[in-house]
Task: inverse folding
């Protein structure tokens, strides 16, 4: 029996092989990311603090886009076979450069599973009923088109159900499942209906990418790197132009938090088109791109609020200084130095980041009793804190990644109101509960804290920090 996690690791590996064969710049990216990771591992004894090098080297996220709740449920079934559950709700319709999708990310949830292979897929659902993008006539034709297509062959879905139920597959079935699953996310050679694709592209390039063709595809596959600034410079040296900046928190001397990402546009890829007169021609489309990311510590809701406030203030200062002013990273760094905890210790004590706790190996041996507050427990040496890695995505960066890789602005009628969507409605569309990322991090943190305090016999701290 090939267990779930091995199916997941094999799927990520094969997808990476397929993508590298088709998108040469991705192979360059992997080479450079590998070099940078090895260098960081050599120079920094703490390089493994946010994930062992073996995990980080194999780590990828991908992104797919689907058109209907039915397709989303089928994708969820395939990911369930790989031990990946939907986590988080992202609404990218209101962000700057809005795109007509709502999204979630399929990923492993348990720490042991993440350590084995953290493969995740950002998955977006086209919001066909959103009147800001699609009028009633276009919605009807779009839904009819989507209703006629089959993204995932029935055999793949049957194998996925079995793999979920039995927590793995026999080797020959695993082979078949992996082959079909990778094929489902490959770019299809099927001719693209030119008139239909163009009509949708006028509304939104993302709408055309999803609803203008009869299949889906992985649109990028993102490796993780330990020094994204070094990687950014080195890609430029190799002649690959990245987008203007690294999205997310700035580089600074304090703790790495959340997620920093940057991307580059893929090249045109040859595609066949069916023209309005029925003839088949060759042309090109740009639908796949490259991206890389560095991951940091997961932030609590209070930490996210601090992050949001710093981002807003960075925006305000940049707008005030106008063109030719300082670089975003520099403005942000100055603000972070004044307004964000400068050490992991402070991040933990102020409750802004998530950590797992353990009794310190060299805790006080005198007759002092452990204090009842986290700051005291940490500074007096009762507890050690180990950061929990951020395993999710950032809506603003996601919108930026979408935007930077699209051709054309599309059209959005902001005067109309959008269809309401939230995590609950998305759960109904997926047919499985969409997990709240904060709850997952908090549960892991709280369990470790309770355990550590019990081991210390820190009754006062248990009563204050772990009520109920
Ligand atoms: C997904 C964009 C979001 C990320 O890393 O934030 C994403 C897409 O382009 O479909 O992958
Ligand atoms: Ni991405």
Result:
């Amino acid at each position: 029996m090939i267990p779930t996690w091995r199916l997941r690791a094999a799927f990520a590996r094969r997808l990476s092989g397929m993508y590298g064969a088709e998108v040469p710049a991705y192979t360059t990216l992997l080479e450079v990311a590998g070099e940078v990771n090895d260098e960081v591992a050599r120079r920094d004894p703490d390089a493994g603090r946010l994930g062992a090098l073996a995990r980080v080297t194999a780590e990828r996220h991908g992104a797919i886009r689907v058109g209907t709740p039915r397709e989303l449920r089928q994708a969820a079934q395939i990911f369930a076979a790989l031990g990946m559950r939907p986590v988080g709700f992202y609404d990218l319709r209101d962000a700057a450069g809005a795109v007509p999708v709502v999204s979630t990310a399929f990923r492993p949830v348990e720490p042991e599973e993440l350590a084995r292979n953290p493969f995740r897929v950002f998955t977006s659902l086209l919001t066909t009923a959103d009147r800001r993008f699609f009028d009633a006539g276009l919605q009807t034709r779009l839904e009819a088109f989507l209703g006629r297509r089959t993204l995932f062959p029935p055999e793949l879905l049957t194998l996925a159900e079995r793999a979920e139920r039995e927590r793995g597959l026999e080797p020959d079935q695993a082979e078949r499942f992996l082959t079909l699953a990778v094929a489902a996310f490959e770019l299809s050679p099927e001719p693209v209906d030119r008139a239909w694709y163009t009509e949708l592209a006028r509304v939104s390039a993302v709408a055309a990418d999803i609803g203008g063709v009869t299949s889906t595809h992985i649109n990028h596959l993102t490796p993780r790197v330990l020094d994204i600034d070094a990687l950014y410079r080195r890609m430029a040296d190799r002649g690959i132009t990245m987008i203007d900046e690294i999205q997310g928190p700035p580089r600074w001397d304090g703790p790495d938090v959340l997620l920093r990402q940057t991307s580059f546009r893929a090249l045109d890829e040859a595609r066949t088109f069916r023209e309005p007169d029925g003839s088949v021609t060759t042309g090109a489309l740009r639908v796949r791109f490259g991206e890389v990311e560095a991951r940091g510590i997961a932030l609590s809701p209070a930490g996210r609020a601090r992050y949001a406030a710093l981002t807003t203030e960075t925006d305000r200062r940049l707008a005030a200084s106008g063109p030719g002013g300082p670089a975003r990273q520099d403005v942000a760094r100055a603000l972070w130095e004044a307004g964000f905890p400068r050490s992991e210790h402070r991040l933990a004590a102020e409750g802004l980041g998530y950590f797992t706790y353990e009794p310190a190996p060299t805790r006080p041996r005198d007759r002092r009793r452990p204090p009842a507050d986290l700051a005291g427990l940490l500074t007096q040496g009762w507890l050690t804190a180990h950061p929990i890695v951020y395993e999710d995505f950032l809506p603003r960066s996601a919108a930026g990644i979408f935007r930077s890789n699209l051709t054309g602005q599309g059209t959005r009628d902001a005067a109309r109101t959008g269809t309401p969507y939230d995590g609950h409605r998305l759960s109904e569309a997926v047919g499985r509960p969409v997990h709240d990322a904060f709850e997952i991090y908090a549960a892991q943190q709280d369990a470790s804290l309770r355990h550590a305090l019990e081991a210390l016999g820190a009754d006062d701290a248990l009563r204050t920090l772990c009520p109920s």
